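Session log. Operator J.P. requested a structure for one protein chain; no other inputs attached. Running the standard single-chain path with token output.
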Amino acid sequence: MRVSVLITLKPGVLDAEGRQLERALRELGYDQLAEVRTGKVIELDIDANDADHARQLAREMCEKLLANPVIEQYEIRV
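Structure written below.
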């Protein structure tokens, strides 16, 4: 079962890469830009019986390794 995990920094955590991209986009003329936040997508192919089980396994993986729960949040899509 294909699972996508979107990991982003929690609100209030400084996103240096996002700030650099925001600055560069403004220099390219995109003045209407309010804010840029970066993140990462991790694609998992999980051998699971159903979507709930796949989601549970992905959540465990995020808590143990994939995401830093102190500064990051994640969203799981099955």
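Operator note: DSSP finds two helices and three strands in the chain.
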